Amino acid sequence: MTAEKEDLRRQALTWLADLSPQDRERGDDALFRRFLSLPQVQSVHTILLYCGMGTEPDTLRLLPPLFAAGKAVCLPRCLPGNQMEVRLVQQDSSLIRHPYGMLEPDLRCPLVPPEDVDLVLVPGLAFDRSGGRLGRGGGYYDRWLTRFSGYTVALCRDGLLLDSVPRLPHDVGVELVVTETGLYGPSASGPGKSGA
Fold it and tell me: What pTM did the predictor assign?
């Protein structure tokens, strides 16, 4: 299964590398519209985002509308041993570049325990229609999510929505997968997909 996952990661990264900047931006626009309009997003107070990097959705674009809506927004920090912690950010918070390339809150940002987070936007290279997630292999979110009991959402480009993602016992899926054109997963309305 590990070899199968690595092959899927290579395929996903190749597909992403072929996307033009314009296609990525258009896809981000559609993904962010859908995410911000979710009732689950509108009804919660504290949201954990991730800082998209490279070909990932530019999720920092979500900060201004979430702040404007009065949401408390958190970002993750990587810790040794493939662990992570969550810190609250404000509009003027300093973000620092991690060696992996993503931005993280600095240590002056308040620490937030998992039980104080209502909704997590979970990153991934690809997802399937049942909420299965193909991460990058570090296990940071799989470990953190075992202590989380709130709602999980993912953004997935239509071209990276798979029929099935192989899962090991420790792999944690998401409740809702948002693509440019639909909603999928255990809590999607209807038979697994909703229209625009």
Answer: 0.90
